[in-house]
Write a structure and sequence with these properties.
Order of helices and strands: HEHHHHEEEEEEH
Distance between the termini: 27 Å
Shape: flat
Radius of gyration: 27 Å
Number of strands: 7
Strand order of the largest sheet: 2-6-7-1-5-4-3
Mean pLDDT: 83
Low-confidence stretches: 206-225
Number of domains: 2
């Protein structure tokens, strides 16, 4: 009877371990199937004077739009305790282009992304208000607004040539291969030099099966439990 009790305890322990290992395998396989995001940053090789001037103009206009949207939100909250959202301000873009024709030279999704940035900033602000740490978002000076983004379309990459809508084509110094699906394209100025940052969606590369025999044995035994 004592031996039977020991055997029963061993079987229970074995069953528990098998259940735990099965859960571990399930979690590993779930993580392996998930999509992860990566960033690839490349130097733009000596853009022409026209392209560089367009970069600077786009950056300045986006900064002005950001500050104007920020001012509108601050006034709405301070005077009427009204919280404006992205849709409210995005609906004004058509009118802004009519009264400020220079904005017609900028791809619409770049302008929409600027308003999404201010929307994200204010969501963080209201979260701080709830925590008793209120402090209005600040206006962006020229040295604190250094990038603009094509969030979905308006750009195409062929080998080392990047074509940007309403801007032109530039050459990139591709230091490594881009792996995955490119989702966004950000143009950034760093100390007078221009860079592009691609946001990419891809699957993890650590989900490959082990190549050594010991790994195969361990995996096979694990699956049989």
């Amino acid at each position: 009877m004592r031996n039977f009790g020991i055997m029963k305890d061993w079987q229970t322990s074995f069953a528990n371990n098998r259940f735990a290992l099965t859960k571990i395998i399930t979690v590993i396989m779930k993580v392996a199937s998930q999509i992860i995001q990566k960033s690839f940053r490349f130097r733009i090789c000596e853009p022409s004077q026209l392209v560089q001037a367009t970069f600077e103009k786009t950056l300045n206009l986006c900064r002005n739009l950001y500050n104007a949207a920020l001012q509108e939100r601050r006034d709405a909250y301070k005077l009427n305790r009204i919280s404006l959202n992205y849709e409210t301000q995005a609906n004004q873009l058509k009118e802004i282009k009519q009264t400020n024709p220079e904005y017609k030279d900028i791809h619409s999704q770049i302008l929409q992304d600027v308003l999404k940035r201010i929307d994200k900033t204010f969501k963080a602000f209201f979260q701080r208000v709830k925590q008793g740490k209120a402090g209005f978002p600040r206006f962006k000076g020229a040295n604190r607004f250094d990038s603009f983004c094509f969030p979905q379309s308006g750009f195409s990459l062929t080998r080392n040539k990047l074509t940007l809508s309403k801007i032109g084509t530039v050459k990139l110094k591709l230091s490594r291969k881009i792996i995955g699906k490119v989702k966004t394209c950000t143009i950034k100025n760093e100390c007078g030099k221009w860079f592009v940052i691609f946001s990419v969606e891809t699957k993890p590369n650590h989900c490959r099966k082990p190549e050594n025999k010991l790994g195969w044995i361990w995996e096979s035994n694990l699956l049989r439990l």
